[in-house]
């Protein structure tokens, strides 16, 4: 199947944003060794895609909450049909259908972004001054030459950590500069990828199912480490897209997780141990408002121990004198 429609779509969004920044007055020349109009075009390619996918992202969060709520019933089915995998699968699918929960919805936003990533990778890889087909995918020759020479801190956005000497010569770039800038961006890409996975796991908790927990560990550690190798073949412009996408995800997840907080059970948030048996998390100290949001927790003043109560004498009773003096001697 031809993917040209993806390449045309990605090119159109890039060129539209580049023209918009050019019209606003962002300088075409390099400032601090950077062609900001092209960098901003890549950044706002991310914004465009994420705005389009935002409703899908909200559905993903709701689906994850629904799946968490169904975990007790899923465990009951697993115990009931232990050893009968076929019946278990049928019962679980019926449960998901009845409760309108979709296990695949959690991966849908990521799958929808894969074509965008591949499209940008293909388009930026073509940014080679030696190419003859400069007008492919709706580009003009002038736009193609401008993007081919676009840089970030003097490193071309079409360059990559593993660029050959011949590729660097055609781009007019220094191999050391490209490796330094690409290396730094790869490390940032790994770090932000780790943080996005960690943020979600800390908010929703580690899964109790061993297979799901293994997938969580793979997302948390495996994917960031794999980027150390695969990042060497990504053009710098693609790495900028990835880092921007991660930063957008961090902000978006924080907003959505506040709006749709994780389910809390008698084991704490999403299966984590809680400090109380009522299903609520640990009590947080109250906060008072302050200027510029400088909130400080209210100091907890320990209550003074109550003095023991002493019973008073009954009405009409003779006063008791517990301390009696020595008996007088008879004279």
Low-pLDDT ranges = 270-299
Oligomer: single chain
Which outline best applies?
A: elongated
Helix and strand content put the structural class at: mainly alpha
Q: What is the distance, rounded to the nearest whole angstrom, between the alpha carbons of the first and last residues?
A: 130 Å
SSE ordering: HHHHHHEEHHHHEEEE
Q: Give Rg in angstroms.
A: 32 Å
Q: What's the structural blueprint in terms of helices and strands?
A:
Blueprint: H1 4-24, H2 36-69, H3 71-80, H4 85-99, H5 108-125, H6 141-148, E1 151-152, E2 155-156, H7 165-171, H8 175-204, H9 210-230, H10 236-259, E3 264-265, E4 268-269, E5 287-288, E6 296-297
Antiparallel strand pairs: 1-2, 3-4, 5-6
Helix pairs in contact: 1-2, 1-5, 2-5, 2-10, 3-4, 5-10, 8-9, 8-10
Features:
57% helix; 331 residues; two-stranded antiparallel ribbon; mainly alpha; 10 helices
Brief synopsis:
The chain is mainly alpha-helical and 331 residues long.
Describe the structure.
The protein has 331 residues and is mainly alpha-helical. Helices cover 57% and strands 4% of the residues. The chain is built from 10 helices and 6 strands, in the order H-H-H-H-H-H-E-E-H-H-H-H-E-E-E-E. It has helices spanning 4-24, 36-69, 71-80, 85-99, 108-125, 141-148, 165-171, 175-204, 210-230, 236-259; strands spanning 151-152, 155-156, 264-265, 268-269, 287-288, 296-297. It has a two-stranded antiparallel sheet with strand order 1-2. Strands 3-4 form a two-stranded antiparallel sheet. Helix 1 crosses helix 5. The longest helix has 34 residues, at 36-69. The chain is elongated. The termini are far apart.
